[in-house]
Structure formats: structure tokens, C-alpha cells
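Run log // design_07
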């Protein structure tokens, strides 16, 4: 299909209809071309088909940028200091990854290669109950030593405010906002024990959430399949989430279960939102294991019903049928209580190992076989041979039992082993991605094919999520281009309270991405993940051309984006 024909079938309307489709898009912003100076724009992007992020069809117009803001959308008569012809290209707001694990990797490689090259301009981190801070003395020391020794990076902060300040001083190519993690604060206040929090501990955790919100956090996340978050009961989650009330920021949850007990996990998550009186974001929604695939339609209906009853609820999902986590997640939460040292001790205890083994083998049976488990990373080079390999095949090759191999890897790597699990259906994936209440996330980190972030065999979503959505899923007809754009721009921006990002309109921040709808595609695979996508020639971050002709310009215009705090109205 020719490029222009694709754009027409994607809903292009003529210039005469642009005002209706894009609202204020064709009008000049009140600030004017030069933000009050009368100067010509710094940058004019010509003849692109603009999908403004609201879900409206594309319109062929020009976009003018002065400083870090969009100043005009329509027929731009002024000449820009720089002009770029984007005829035949789609131009959209920069993609917002509502569930990212880039976090500290932006300090390791501020170029954020695998992020900026797929059009991501804003990372929402602090997910799955794990945020950069606050840190205990021991946690700070361990993090500082690990990043200094492995990457030569100086960690000189202990909380979210310090992390955001550090990004202000040493910006990356992308913007970053963060949530505060439940597992992080529970580990700090309660520790790694499997027990309920006391009333005093809940008060202390609430105070830490409040401090993080005042430092700029844009939500509160939980990771209820991970320790120590899994040891919290629903009453604790409600009391902690109440700290968000009135801010408009969401409670985002990696739910307690995503397979056999999926219905109960969804209901628990919705219950927290209802009882705390806060918005809900269900993280990476899935029905895992073939015997549970039928549940996808039912849980979508339950989320629709909750929304219809007044709960501000959305979800997100990555466009792949495999998830990524730690290999330890194949083992029961009770065995992981107390931290890695205690977990490894139980794995080496003949009295406890049989019960652990029964759980792990049942978990693998849910996925289908040991070949549904792929090792993605190891901490040391000693076991580098396992990276990128399927466990069943690798165990057979080495003459080991796959469970015994898993235990050995965890013990030798001190519980620093990553895995990819193949457990979801393609039909469910497409339906979840297309659902109107769904956003699209990577649930991945930032990588590069060179240097410190090139190790291991990570999930390809770190390189390919957004081009895969705009390419494979849009061109296959799973959803329209304008809906796909909405799910990764205005919709997530609104969820975390950012009115001036995620849209193409005068006055909005100039985070923009241009791509060819007929060729944009992911290249990263599970076997060879360190590959950049194709079809994305231009990315602008805060008005600065950061990717030109598919290559980085050297600009690092990303910013730390802070929320309103508790005192401002939502």
C-alpha cells in the first residue's frame, strides 16, 4: 500500500475540516509565534498528517515550535529558523510510556537509545511497587556501590526528590516522571517479613507516600506478586492509597495474580480504588496460561462495569504474548520472604525444597513447559551461557533437570536472574490493546546495542513496543492509527495529570514524533533483542530535535517532570 493511500484510509480529512477534528489546532496559540516576541518560529514541521493525540483523525497541517512549546498548528505562514518537510509522514505527540522501568538506567546511558528511537519522550517509572527511593542507609549503600562498580555512576540521592533533582542536573534524551512504590516503602518500614503492618507502620508508610507526592510523585504503585509487597493485605493497600485522595493521581497495581486467581485479583484492585476514593491503573493486564485465556473477556467486562459505576479505572498492556520478570517469580512468595539470603537458604534446605519444587513445577505447567521460560539475564559472566536460552532445551543439552538448573542459577547468581515467560494468547493481546480503556506500555527498561546496557537478552519490548503497536497492530486492523496514538499520548498524560503534554496544540510542550505508517516496525526479537526499530526518522523533545533521520543529534532536552503535590487541586 502506498504511503499516501494509507493515510487517506486512516481517516485523513481535508484542511477545511481541520478545525472540527483538532479543536483549537488550526488557531494560533495566545502566546503567538514567538511567545510574545513576534519572532519567527524556531522550527516548522511541514505537510505532516497530524494525529493530535485526542483520538481525532489525521489532518495534513504544519506545526510551528518556538522554545519548548508548540505555537501554531495549521497553515504556518512564517518561516522557521529550521524547516523539515514531513510529507507522507504521521506526526503525533511523543509517546508516553505509562509503565516503564527505565529508572536509573537513564543515568547509566542518558542517550536512552532504545527509548528515544521508538518515539518515547516521557517515561512513567516507579512501577510494580518499586521506586528509586526512599532508601535506608543499607539500601543506599548497596545501590551506590553497585552503580559505581558496575557503571561508574555516582548515586548521590536517597529519595524521589533527589532522583528528580539529579535528572535536572544531568538530563537524558527523554522526560521522566515517577510513582512511589509500595514495596519500596514497605521494605523500608516493615522489612521483608511476611506479616501485617502495624497501625504505626501504616502511619509511617503514609507519611512517606505524602513526602513523595510533595517531591513530585504522580501516583502510588504496588507489586503484589513480589516481596515484600505480596505480604500486604487489602486493608493496608486501601489505607495507603487514601494518601492519594484529592490529588487525582492513580493507584497502579501489578495485581496479586494474573492467572488462576485473576478474577479475585482484579476485584481486589478495583476495591482498593473504590474504598480509597482514588483512580486505578491496572498494570500490564493479561490472562496468563492457556487454561485462563477465556477469562480475558470477562475481566474486561468487569473493568467496564466498574467504570460505568463511577470508578476512574484504566489498564495498560504491552504488545507481546510473553512477560518478563525475575526467575524467582516461579517460586512461592513465602519462600522469598526475608530477602534473597533467606530465599537461597530455603532453596538449600532439604526439608523445604520439596514444597518449593511442587509450586514451581505447577507454575511452569501453567505456561506449558520449561521451554516457555527463557533466561534473559544473569548478574555474572559465569552463567552467561544461559542468557537467551529456553530452560527446557538448555537443561536437556546440559543433562540437568530444569528445576535443579533453575535453583542452581538462582543460588550462584544470588537471586539476580531474569526470565521471559510465554503465557498469553495473541487473540487476547489484540483485544486488550484495542479496548477503549486500555493504554499501551513497554513494561521494559532502557537498553543500547553497545556499552553498559547491551548485556543479557532482554524482552524485545524495551526496543520495539511502540513501533510494534503503530506497525503490526495498526496495519493488521486490530485498531486504527488515531486510536493507537491516543492510547500512548493524551490518554496516559491525563491519567497522571499532565494537561500540557500528550497533545499537538498551541501551548503544549513540543514533544513530537514523526513516523512512516507504512513502514514503521519493530526489529527486536526474543532471540536477538538489541535491534532498533525502523520507520521513525524524527523525534522532538521539549522543542529540541533529538532524533533526525533516525540518528541522535546529541540533544539531551529531557526533564524531570514533577506532580502537583498534595496541596494542589486535581
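design_07 sequence
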Amino acid at each position: 500500500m502506498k504511503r499516501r493511500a494509507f493515510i487517506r484510509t486512516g481517516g485523513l480529512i481535508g484542511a477545511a475540516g481541520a478545525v472540527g477534528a483538532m479543536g483549537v489546532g488550526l488557531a494560533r496559540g495566545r502566546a503567538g509565534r514567538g511567545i510574545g516576541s513576534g519572532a519567527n518560529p524556531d522550527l516548522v514541521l511541514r505537510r505532516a498528517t497530524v494525529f493530535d493525540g485526542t483520538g481525532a483523525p489525521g489532518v495534513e497541517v504544519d506545526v510551528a515550535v518556538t522554545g519548548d512549546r508548540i505555537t501554531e498548528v495549521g497553515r504556518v505562514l512564517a518561516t522557521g529558523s529550521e524547516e523539515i518537510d514531513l510529507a507522507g509522514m504521521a506526526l503525533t505527540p511523543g509517546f508516553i510510556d505509562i509503565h516503564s522501568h527505565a529508572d536509573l538506567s537513564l543515568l547509566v546511558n542518558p542517550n536512552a537509545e532504545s527509548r528515544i528511537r521508538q518515539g518515547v519522550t516521557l517515561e512513567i517509572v516507579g512501577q510494580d511497587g518499586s521506586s528509586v527511593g526512599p532508601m535506608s542507609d543499607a539500601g543506599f549503600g548497596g545501590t551506590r556501590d553497585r552503580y559505581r562498580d558496575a557503571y561508574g555512576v555516582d548515586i548521590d540521592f536517597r529519595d524521589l526528590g533527589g532522583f528528580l533533582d539529579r535528572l535536572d542536573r544531568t538530563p537524558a534524551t527523554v522526560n521522566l516522571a515517577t510513582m512511589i512504590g509500595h514495596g519500596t516503602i514497605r521494605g523500608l518500614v516493615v522489612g521483608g517479613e511476611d506479616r501485617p503492618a502495624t497501625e504505626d507502620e501504616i502511619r509511617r508508610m503514609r507519611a512517606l507516600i505524602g513526602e513523595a507526592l510533595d517531591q513530585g510523585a504522580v501516583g502510588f504503585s504496588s507489586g503484589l506478586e513480589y516481596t515484600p509487597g505480596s505480604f500486604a493485605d487489602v486493608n493496608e493497600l486501601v489505607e495507603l492509597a487514601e494518601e492519594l485522595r484529592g490529588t487525582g493521581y492513580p493507584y497502579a497495581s501489578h495485581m496479586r495474580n494474573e492467572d488462576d486467581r485473576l478474577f479475585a485479583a482484579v476485584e481486589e484492585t478495583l476495591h482498593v480504588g473504590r474504598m480509597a476514593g482514588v483512580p486505578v491503573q491496572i498494570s500490564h493486564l493479561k490472562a496468563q496460561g492457556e487454561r485462563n485465556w477465556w477469562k480475558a473477556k470477562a475481566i474486561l467486562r468487569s473493568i467496564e462495569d466498574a467504570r460505568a459505576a463511577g470508578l476512574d479505572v484504566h489498564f495498560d498492556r504491552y504488545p507481546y504474548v510473553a512477560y518478563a520478570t525475575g526467575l524467582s517469580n516461579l517460586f512461592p512468595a513465602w519462600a522469598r520472604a526475608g530477602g534473597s539470603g533467606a530465599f537461597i537458604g530455603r532453596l538449600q534446605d532439604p526439608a523445604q525444597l520439596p514444597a518449593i519444587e511442587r509450586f514451581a513445577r505447577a507454575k511452569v505447567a501453567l505456561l506449558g513447559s520449561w521451554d516457555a521460560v527463557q533466561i534473559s539475564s544473569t548478574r555474572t559472566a559465569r552463567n552467561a551461557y544461559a542468557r537467551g536460552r529456553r530452560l527446557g532445551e538448555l537443561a536437556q543439552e546440559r543433562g540437568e533437570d530444569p528445576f535443579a538448573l533453575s535453583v542452581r542459577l538462582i543460588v550462584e547468581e544470588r537471586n539476580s536472574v531474569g526470565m521471559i515467560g510465554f503465557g498469553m494468547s495473541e487473540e487476547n493481546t489484540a483485544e486488550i490493546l484495542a479496548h477503549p480503556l486500555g493504554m499501551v506500555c513497554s513494561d521494559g527498561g532502557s537498553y543500547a546495542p553497545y556499552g553498559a546496557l547491551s548485556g543479557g537478552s532482554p524482552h524485545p519490548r524495551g526496543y520495539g513496543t511502540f513501533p510494534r503497536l503503530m506497525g503490526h497492530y495498526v496495519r493488521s486492523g486490530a485498531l486504527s492509527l488515531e486510536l493507537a496514538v491516543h492510547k500512548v499520548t493524551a490518554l496516559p498524560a491525563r491519567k497522571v495529570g499532565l494537561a500540557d503534554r500528550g497533545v499537538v496544540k498551541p501551548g503544549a510542550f513540543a514533544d513530537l514524533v514523526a513516523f512512516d505508517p507504512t513502514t514503521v516496525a519493530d526489529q527486536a526479537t526474543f532471540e536477538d533483542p538489541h535491534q532498533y526499530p525502523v520507520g521513525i526518522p524524527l523525534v522532538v523533545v521539549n522543542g529540541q530535535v533529538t532524533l533526525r533521520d533516525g540518528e541522535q543529534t546529541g540533544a539531551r532536552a529531557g526533564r524531570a517532570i514533577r506532580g502537583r503535590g498534595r496541596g494542589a487541586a486535581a
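The chain has 20 helices and 21 strands.
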